[in-house]
Automatic annotation (TrEMBL):
<protein>
    <submittedName>
        <fullName>Small acid-soluble spore protein alpha/beta type</fullName>
    </submittedName>
</protein>
<comment type="function">
    <text>SASP are bound to spore DNA. They are double-stranded DNA-binding proteins that cause DNA to change to an a-like conformation. They protect the DNA backbone from chemical and enzymatic cleavage and are thus involved in dormant spore's high resistance to UV light.</text>
</comment>
<feature type="region of interest" description="Disordered">
    <location>
        <begin position="1"/>
        <end position="29"/>
    </location>
</feature>
<dbReference type="InterPro" id="IPR038300">
    <property type="entry name" value="SASP_sf_alpha/beta"/>
</dbReference>
<dbReference type="GO" id="GO:0003690">
    <property type="term" value="F:double-stranded DNA binding"/>
</dbReference>
<dbReference type="InterPro" id="IPR001448">
    <property type="entry name" value="SASP_alpha/beta-type"/>
</dbReference>
<dbReference type="Pfam" id="PF00269">
    <property type="entry name" value="SASP"/>
</dbReference>
<dbReference type="GO" id="GO:0006265">
    <property type="term" value="P:DNA topological change"/>
</dbReference>
<feature type="compositionally biased region" description="Basic and acidic residues">
    <location>
        <begin position="18"/>
        <end position="29"/>
    </location>
</feature>
Length: 80
């Protein structure tokens, strides 16, 4: 069987999340964290986050990530 290749955002997310802290998060928090990294990659900001951390983003960039997260959560709720 072929092993599924991890996405770039998954690799960066693993760098940011320590395993012991990750396990303490609820499934909802883990899903939110995955969505945040996925959107960050879609916006082309993943390299910046990897290099500078979340504090390296501007308010506009973080607002865009948050807005897209809310939009995707709303779409998921309406789709079910």
């Amino acid at each position: 069987m072929e092993q599924k290749k991890e996405s770039r955002w998954q690799q960066v997310m693993e760098q940011f999340n320590e395993p012991d802290k990750w396990e303490k998060k609820t499934p909802e928090e883990q899903a939110r964290e995955r969505l945040k990294f996925e959107i960050t990659e879609e916006l082309g900001l993943l390299d910046k986050v990897e290099a500078l951390g979340w504090k390296g983003l501007t308010a506009r960039e973080t607002g865009r990530i948050g807005g897209l997260m809310n939009q995707k959560k709303k779409e998921k709720r309406n789709g079910e």
